[in-house]
C-alpha cells in the first residue's frame, strides 16, 4: 500500500500489455524513415533532448549508441518489478484514427497506448540485434482528447533501447497534466510452456469467516501518517465498512513492531488516544472488525531468526491488547519476503524469513483462538507471478521475491480469514489462459482472482500445485480512486469483473474456472481516499451487493 498521494508512473510497475495487435516488424534500414515530422504528435520523439516530454523510470537513461537515427536514444534495464518504462501524454481528437510506431533494439521491448477510449493496443519485440520497428493502430473514443503512449522492457530481460517514436493522426489541444491509469485489453503472448490447471475445480471447505457478512467491504484507515487524502477519525468511518485496517504498524528492528499514531501536526483533526480507543470499541460494537496492518510500502519487516519471530509475536500481541483489536493484517511489501536459492517447494519452505513469519502467525492464531481475524494483502508479484516464476529459479537469475507469499498463504490457509491481493501497482501478470493481463481493465481483476479460486501450478510445475482458496477467503483489492494507486478502474468496470466472477456473465474473452456467488467482497486503499472522493467506492459496493 502506498502512503504517498501520487501515482508512480515514473516507477512503471507496468502499464503495458503484450501484443494482441499483429506485429509489424522490419529490420532497420537507412532507407526507412519515420512519418513526416509535421504529422508526428510525439514531443522529443528521438530523445535528442534527453527525457524532456517523457515520464521515465529511474532505470532509463539516454545513450549515444546504439541509436536508430540522430545522436540519442533511450536505454532501459528492467529490475525487479520496474520494467523501465517511459510514457508520454499526447493530445488527440475524438473519433479519430492513429498509428503508433517506434524502433527498438536489445532485450524484450514493448510499445503501446492507453486511454484511447476504445481498444488500447501494444506490440513487442522478443529481442533484436539491430533496430526493429514496432507499430500498432487505434481509434479514439467519442470523448477522448488525450492518450498515453509508452515504451518499456520486461521482467528479468536484458537492456533495451528505443528511438524515433511516432504517433500520427490529427492533433488535439495540449492535455492537462494527468496520472490516471487507463484500461488495457487482454493480449496474446509469445509461446509458453506453462500449463494451466484443469477447467473443472472444486473449492475447499471454507474456514471460519471471522464473523464477517457474506459480502464484506475492507478498507485501510490512515492512522500513523498523513497525506493529501485527509484524516478520518475512526468513529466517523461509515457503517458500510466491515473490516477496518489501521495503517500501519512498522518495524523497530529485529522483529519488533511498533504502532505510533499520527501526530496532530501531521494529521490535523486527529483524535486523542482515548477517543481513538472509544472509536474502535464503537465500531466493534456495531459488528466491525478492527485490525492492525503491519508493513505497507514503506515498512520493511524481515524475521530473520527465531528470536525475531518471538519479538514479532510479543510486540504484536502488545499492540492488539492495548487497543483491543480483532486481529492482524499482513501487508509485507518490497524486500520483506524473498526466497533463498534452492527453496523450491512452497509446501515445505526453508528460507528463514518465510519459516519464521509462518511460525509467528501460527503463534498469534493459537494465542487468540478461533475469533482471531487474519488477513493478508500481498502484491501480485508475490502471489500470481508464482504461476510463471518462483524465487530465484534454477539458475538463480530471477527476482527471489517472485511468488514469495505463496508458502505463507499455504501454511495459514486454514486460519486465513481473507486474502486481499493488491490488483494495483502491478506489472503485467500471466493468467491461467497463458495470456498476460494488465491493470486498468476488468480482465485483470477477473484473471487474477480466478487464479486464487482455481489454484495453479507453481512455476508451471503441475506436480507442485498451489491449491484453490475458498471464495469466502478472497476479496479483490483495488484503489479507491485515481489518486490512490495505479490500476484504478471506473465503477462499471469493477462491476463487470464482479459480474463475471460471481454470475458468470460479462467475462469477455476470458474463460473462468467457475462462478463464485459467495466471493467475499472488495478491499480498497483506502478509506481516506474514498472519503476524499465522496465515498464513491463504498457506495458502489453497497449498491452492487446490497
Number of helices: 8
Sheet having the most strands: 9 strands, mixed
Averaged pLDDT: 87
Number of strands: 23
Main structural class: alpha/beta
CATH topology description of the largest domain:
TIM Barrel
Query: Level of helix content?
Result: 10-25%
What Rg, in angstroms, do the CA atoms define? 23 Å
Number of domains: 2
Describe, in plain words, how this protein is organized in 3D.
The protein has eight helices and 23 strands. The longest helix has 18 residues, at 306-323. The model is unreliable at 5-38 and 175-206 (pLDDT under 50). It is globular and about 65 Å long. Strand 16 (373-376), helix 4 and strand 17 form a beta-alpha-beta unit. Helix 2 (306-323) packs parallel to helix 3 (352-368) and helix 5 packs parallel to helix 6 (491-503). Helix content is 18%, strand content 23%. The chain starts with 54 loop residues before the first strand and ends with a helix. It has helices at 273-285, 306-323, 352-368, 406-411, 442-454, 491-503, 527-532, 536-545; strands spanning 55-56, 60-63, 73-76, 86-91, 97-106, 109-114, 122-125, 128-139, 146-152, 160-168, 216-222, 243-253, 256-258, 289-296, 327-332, 373-376, 418-419, 429-430, 436-437, 456-458, 461-466, 475-479, 521-525. The protein is of the alpha/beta class and 546 residues long. Strands 11, 12, 13, 14, 15, 16, 17, 22 and 23 form a nine-stranded mixed β-sheet that branches. It has a five-stranded antiparallel β-sheet with strand order 1-4-9-6-7, with no helix packed on it. The chain has a five-stranded antiparallel β-sheet with strand order 2-3-10-5-8, with no helix packed on it. It folds into two domains: 1-196, Jelly Rolls (Sandwich), CATH 2.60.120.260; 216-545, TIM Barrel, CATH 3.20.20.80.
Amino acid at each position: 500500500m502506498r502512503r504517498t498521494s501520487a501515482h508512480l508512473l515514473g516507477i512503471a510497475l507496468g502499464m503495458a500489455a503484450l501484443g494482441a495487435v499483429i506485429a509489424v516488424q522490419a529490420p532497420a534500414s537507412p532507407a526507412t524513415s519515420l512519418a513526416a515530422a509535421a504529422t508526428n504528435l510525439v514531443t522529443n520523439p528521438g530523445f535528442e533532448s534527453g527525457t524532456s516530454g517523457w515520464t521515465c523510470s529511474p532505470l532509463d537513461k539516454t545513450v549515444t549508441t546504439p541509436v536508430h537515427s540522430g545522436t540519442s536514444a533511450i536505454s532501459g534495464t528492467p529490475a525487479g518489478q520496474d520494467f523501465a518504462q517511459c510514457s508520454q501524454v499526447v493530445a488527440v481528437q475524438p473519433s479519430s484514427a492513429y498509428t503508433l510506431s517506434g524502433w527498438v533494439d536489445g532485450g524484450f521491448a514493448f510499445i503501446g497506448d492507453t486511454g484511447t477510449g476504445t481498444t488500447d493496443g501494444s506490440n513487442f519485440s522478443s529481442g533484436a540485434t539491430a533496430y526493429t520497428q514496432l507499430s500498432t493502430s487505434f481509434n479514439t473514443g467519442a470523448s477522448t482528447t488525450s492518450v498515453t503512449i509508452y515504451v518499456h522492457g520486461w521482467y528479468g530481460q536484458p537492456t533495451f533501447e528505443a528511438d524515433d517514436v511516432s504517433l500520427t493522426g490529427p492533433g488535439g489541444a495540449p492535455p492537462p497534466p494527468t496520472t490516471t491509469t487507463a484500461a488495457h485489453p487482454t493480449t496474446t503472448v509469445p509461446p509458453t510452456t506453462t500449463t494451466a490447471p484443469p477447467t473443472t475445480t472444486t473449492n475447499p471447505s471454507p474456514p471460519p469467516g471471522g464473523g464477517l457478512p457474506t459480502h464484506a467491504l475492507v478498507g485501510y484507515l490512515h492512522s500513523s501518517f498523513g497525506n493529501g487524502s485527509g484524516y478520518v477519525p475512526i468513529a466517523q468511518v461509515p457503517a458500510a465498512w466491515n473490516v477496518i485496517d489501521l495503517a500501519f504498524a512498522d518495524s523497530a528492528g529485529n522483529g519488533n513492531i511498533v504502532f505510533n499514531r499520527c501526530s496532530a501536526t501531521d494529521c490535523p483533526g486527529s483524535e486523542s488516544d482515548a477517543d481513538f480507543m472509544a472509536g474502535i470499541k464503537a465500531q466493534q460494537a456495531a459488528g466491525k472488525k478492527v485490525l492492525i496492518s503491519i508493513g505497507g510500502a514503506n515498512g520493511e519487516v524481515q524475521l530473520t531468526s527465531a528470536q525475531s519471530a518471538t519479538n514479532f509475536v510479543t510486540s504484536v500481541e502488545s499492540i492488539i491488547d492495548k487497543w483491543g483489536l480483532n486481529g492482524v493484517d499482513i501487508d509485507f511489501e518490497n524486500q520483506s519476503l524473498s526466497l533463498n536459492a534452492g527453496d523450491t517447494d512452497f509446501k515445505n519452505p526453508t528460507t528463514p524469513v518465510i519459516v519464521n513469519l509462518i511460525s509467528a502467525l501460527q503463534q498469534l492464531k493459537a494465542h487468540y483462538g478461533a475469533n482471531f481475524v487474519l488477513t493478508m494483502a500481498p502484491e501480485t508479484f508475490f502471489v500470481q507471478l508464482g504461476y510463471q516464476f518462483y524465487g530465484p529459479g534454477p539458475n538463480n537469475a530471477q527476482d527471489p521475491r517472485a511468488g514469495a507469499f505463496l508458502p505463507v498463504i499455504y501454511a495459514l490457509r486454514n486460519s486465513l480469514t481473507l486474502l486481499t491481493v493488491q490488483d494495483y501497482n502491478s506489472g503485467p501478470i500471466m493468467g491461467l489462459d497463458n495470456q498476460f493481463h494488465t491493470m486498468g481493465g476488468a480482465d485483470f481483476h477477473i484473471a487474477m482472482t480466478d487464479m486464487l479460486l482455481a489454484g495453479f501450478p507453481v512455476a508451471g510445475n503441475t506436480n507442485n500445485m498451489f491449491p484453490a482458496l475458498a471464495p469466502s477467503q478472497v476479496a479483490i483489492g483495488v484503489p479507491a480512486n485515481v489518486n490512490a494507486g495505479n490500476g484504478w478502474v471506473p465503477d462499471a468496470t469493477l462491476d463487470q469483473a464482479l459480474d463475471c466472477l460471481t454470475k458468470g456473465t460479462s467475462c469477455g474473452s476470458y474463460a473462468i474456472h467457475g462462478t463464485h456467488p459467495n466471493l467475499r467482497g472488495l478491499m480498497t486503499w483506502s478509506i481516506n481516499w474514498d472519503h476524499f472522493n465522496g465515498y464513491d467506492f463504498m457506495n458502489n459496493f453497497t449498491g452492487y451487493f446490497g
